[in-house]
Amino acid sequence: MTILENPLGNKPGTLLKNGMTLNDHRNAVLARTEETGYYDGRKELTFKDTDPIGFERIFSKVRAGVVNSREVAKKIAASPIVEQEGELCFTLYNVTGDCVVTSTGIIIHVGTMGAAIKYMIQNDWESNPGINEGDMFTNNDCQTGNVHPCDIATIVPIFHDGVMVAWVGGVTHVIDTGAVGPGSMSNGQIQRFGDGLQITCRKTGINDTPLRDYLHESQRNVRTTKYWILDEKTRIAGCHMIRDMVLEVIEDEGAEAFDEFMYEVVEDGRRGLIMRIKAMCMPGTVKTVAFVDVPYTHEDVHVPSTFAKMDSIMHAPCEITVKPTGEWRLDFEGCSRWGWHTYNTNPVAFTSGIWVMMTQSLIPTERVNDGCRYATEFRLPKGTWTNPDDRRTAHADAWHFLVSSWSSLWRGISRTYFARGYLEEVNAGNSNPCNWLQGGGVNQDGEVHAVNSFETAACGTGACAVKDGLNHAAAIWNPEGDMGDIEIWELAEPLLYMGRRIKTNTGGYGKYRGGLGYETLRMVWNSADWTMFFMGNGYMNSDWGLMGGYPAATGYRFEAHNTGLQERIAEGKSLPLGQDRDPRECEYEKHLGPDATVKRDKQCITTEDMYANGDLYLNYLRGGPGFGDPLDRRIVDIQEDLNQNFLLAEFAEKVYGAVFTTDDEGVYTVDADKTAARQAEMRKERLARAVPVKEWMETERTKIIDKDASLAVQQMYASSFYLSPKFTAEFKEFWDLPADWELPEEELGTPMYGARHTMEIGDLPDVSPVIMTEE
Amino acid sequence: MSSTYTKKQVADLVKGDLDFETVHLMLSMPKDEDRYKFYMETINENLDYDHQAIGALGPHLNYVIRSDDEEIVVMCDCGHDFGQYRSNWKLNAVIYVRDNVEKMEQIYPAIMAPDTTWQVYREYYCPSCGIQHCVEAPTPWYPVMHDLQPDFATFYEWMGQPAPAKI
Fold first, then answer.
1. Is the minimum CB–CB distance between A662 and chain B shorter than 8 Å?
2. What distance in Å separates the CA atoms of residue A183 and residue A222, rounded to the nearest whole number?
3. B23:A556 CB<8 A
4. E strands, B28-89, where?
5. A619, A453 in Cβ contact below 8 A?
6. A7 pLDDT band (50/70/90 cuts)?
7. Does the CB of A293 have a partner CB in chain B at under 8 Å?
8. Which 3 state secondary structure label does DSSP give A400?
9. Any B CB within 8 A of A730 CB
10. Closest CA to A86 of A94, A97, A77
């Protein structure tokens, strides 16, 4: 047998003009950055300073190019998630894998695709499997920086005159990855091994052609094959359009200018964030926290292993430090442990995702790139849900914890804006964007199918310090929030719309209220076999409200089976069409047959359950938190809320102190003088029922010493105490607890499988994980 | 590059009266360097007491230089003094905790409110005037959050202004 020398890969040092390997080159860039504090040691922006028009010309061309490519490519996709909701993004990277410019869309993938590129560089993909002109690589591995498996990235190296000059990556959110639970962000599975197909930076194309083995294999492993292939074509088309654009730019502007640009623009991005922080924020320290309920002991949560059958709480404390240099640090010391569910995340998803949020506030410019990361210190303690120390973790719905923890970051950074007067930037937090309607089976076309309704891309926003939050308008993870057209969803899902209405009383109260969510009632129709499940918050809120405002309403679920609706339709009887306006009135149930079974409760996480044609599912999309004392709300705004059906009259009285009348048409008129008098009484009532904080602390301290709290709450603390001596010390100091007070998880009797014995991905042979945060 | 707005526009912003077009400009254009100056002038003109506000924690809660001793303290619009600014003002507030279904039902239908075995609402009021300055929504047992600890020394350096004596 003849042994060929390096049949797949490249001879070391042949890809780059400077003769270095990709890994040596990247390490040199990192070393210059570390040594000087400037990206790649670029203390002077020579190109930008000497030829600013040339610099901006290149920026404009590549930025317009990536945005244009995204807009064109998304028309190839058939998936409503991509085509309707815009769940795709294209990004251009320099050869080290640092982002220089990104398109619009789900720009969290600035970092996730960069992490995949860095993984390939660090693990010597250069020699095996080789990196050549015309190659394509595919990644969706959550242990290699991806958020969740449904975000599939196609990565293409760009060569000019035989020299590698850049990378381009494109990502789409596919509808299904073949996880245990159908739908892209499913639950039910509790480990990576049930989380669906995961591809680790695999070479999936050569000579601009996708490899047949990959196409066949991947289709067999997912439910929605048509969408899968069209998404694949979307990503490839976008990457190749951007590659062509880059080569045109190089021809027009020169290879040397382009090469300089690809580094200077990152340093420019770093400086841009620092300038913006100095211009907007009060320096100092902000402490904030968020929680999410994981209610898995309920009978409607079916998991394969007993050790996952427990109630727990995600704990995400964060200390934000705005430093004198204008850089900032986010420290998540004290977070709870990762768990046997699909809500774990990894550091890249966490750090990269924050830019999705910050582009809507701190850096609302097109110049967001990896420079922002170099101006930010992240600390994500190992072993927490933000940085699992075990290679078995599932991540399908990582967003559930991510967006919930970020709501507290909005609140925290908003305090620094408010302190110095930038009230227009204040956001009381994002809604918990859910419910996620998901399921699958055999659809109206007789095909194996899965769905994930992205209506949640249009929840309510948090209130601002100068105006109410937007109603049913946005999601933190997609700046182009869109609920999608009913007609398109009905084509994609065997679910008819019985109604789609604003959800009354869902925005958090305040001087300015949070944006309202909305609700859609879906009836299963024309399916052969069908399942669905719920995915959202119910027992807890992740948002808090800001400066006296209240959190938004929590979620609840409504589902109905054996409804008799097909008979009622045939008989011309009334149907549940509209709003579940006040859930206590059970309006829907008034239009169901006598044998209907209904589940109406706070269990907002369930696993796959069967639905027959005629069954009902309420998709309730949450509202946002409020800002300021509700007693400061303007009379005219309370009246408008009542007349727009945004607010139940009972809570206009109880929360806002509104005194009003209604006419024959049901129009509300709020009496300003009587309301002011009532509000004055309410302030006195507050003082009558309140106690000094230090007095209350004594009673709460007694509860802690007596360990008087639910098991889920105690397990959360025990988990954080084990991982963080600092959090434990601060907790004990605050409550002045005895030195020997402790709360070990072992005494709770809750399952501890995975709590003490773990194995990381880096323990695998020949695997070198990319680590970009403090752990 | 920065933007320019009038003091009246900033005052209208604080009142919530500024037209949306200007608010939108404020959001989309580079920030205005005079904002802090106009913001503090507006706040101080609206206050009935003689202490000088130098920063804001909420619509009715400010960092002020106490006129008699120049200490920086947290103060309610009504004049209630919550103490030195490095301490957590909430510890000197009064509190009402919504920790059962009946208390939660005063603000949301029970099915749309948290389960209080998982999460409670803690309302912090001014002991003098009853303004609700903060609502926390943690699990039971959670320490009182010290939301913001400003670094005034750096802030005044950034602003190019002399810092108050007792920062």
1. no
2. 10
3. no
4. 52-58, 61-65, 72-76, 81-84
5. yes
6. low
7. yes
8. helix
9. yes
10. A77
Closest partner residue to B91 (CB to CB) among A421, A648, A693 is A693
Residue bearing tokens 């007095």: A695
Q: Which residues pair with A102 in a beta bridge?
A: A91
Rounded to the nearest 5°, which phi and psi values hold at A422? -90, 65
A418 touches chain B (CB under 8 A): yes
In angstroms, rounded to a whole number, what is the distance separating the alpha carbons of residues A313 and A294?
6
Compare all CA atoms of chain A with the CA of B21 and give the residue at the minimum distance.
A424
**Region of residue A48 (phi > 0: left; psi between -120 and 50: alpha; otherwise: beta):** alpha
Cβ density class A714-733: b for 16+ within 10 Å, e for less: bbbbbbbbbbbeebbeebbe
Q: What is the pLDDT of residues A423-475, one digit of tens each?
A: 999 999 989 899 999 999 999 999 999 999 889 999 999 999 999 999 999 88
Flag if B119 and A540 touch (Cβ within 8 Å): yes
Which chain B residues in 29-58 lie under 8 Å from chain A, judged by CB atoms?
Answer: 30-31, 35-36, 38-40, 55-58
Q: Taking CB atoms and an 8 Å limit, are A709 and B139 in contact across chains?
A: yes
| Amino acid A478: pLDDT | 76
**Chain centroid, CA B62 distance in Å:** 6
Q: Does residue A349 sit in helix, strand or coil? A: helix
The closest CB to that of A602, out of B111, B141, B155, belongs to B111
Closest CA to A328 of A252, A291, A379, A292: A379
Instruction: Say which residue the tokens 């510890």 belong to.
Output: B91
Contacts of A17 (CB under 8 A, 6+ apart): A163, A259
Say yes or no to pLDDT of A58 above 90: yes
Chain A partners within 8 Å of B91 (Cβ): 693-694
Which ranges in A497-595 belong to alpha helices (H)? 565-571
Burial class (CB in 10 A: 0-12, 13-18, 19+), A281: buried
**Residue in the structure block whose two tokens are 């719920």:** A534
Interface of A with B in 495-534 (CB under 8 A): 505-506, 509, 511-512
- CA–CA separation, A724 and A728 (whole Å): 6
| Residue whose structure tokens are 């309302």 | B123
Q: What is the pTM of this model?
A: 0.96
Q: Mind listing the pLDDT tens digit for each residue in B57-77?
A: 999 999 999 999 999 999 999
Rg (CA), chain B: 19
The number of helix segments (H) and strand segments (E) in chain A equals: 19, 23
- Write the Ramachandran bin of A367: left for phi over 0, alpha for psi from -120 to 50, otherwise beta: alpha
For chain A, what is the mean pLDDT?
95
Contact A121, A23 (CB under 8 A): yes
Comparing alpha-carbon positions, the chain A residue that sits nearest to B39 is A421
Of B39, B109, B148, the CB nearest to A415: B148
Which residues of A are less than 8 Å from B107 in CB distance? 509, 550, 651, 654-655
Q: Which residues of B touch A648 (CB under 8 A)?
A: 109
CA distances from A405 to A399, A402, A411, A476 (A): 10, 5, 11, 11
Q: Is A646 on the interface with B (CB under 8 A)?
A: no
Which chain A residues have a beta carbon less than 8 Å from that of B16? 466-467, 511-512, 634
CA–CA distances in Å: residue A350 to residues A174, A292, A386, A720: 20, 16, 7, 19
Specify whether the CB–CB gap between A223 and A177 falls below 8 A: no
Residues in contact with A183: Cβ distance below 8 Å, sequence separation at least 6, in sequence order: A175, A176, A436, A438, A439, A440, A450, A451, A452
The verdict on B115 touching A (C-beta cutoff 8 Å) is yes
| pLDDT the model gives residue A5 | 55
Which residue of B lies nearest to A543 if distances are taken between CA atoms? B137
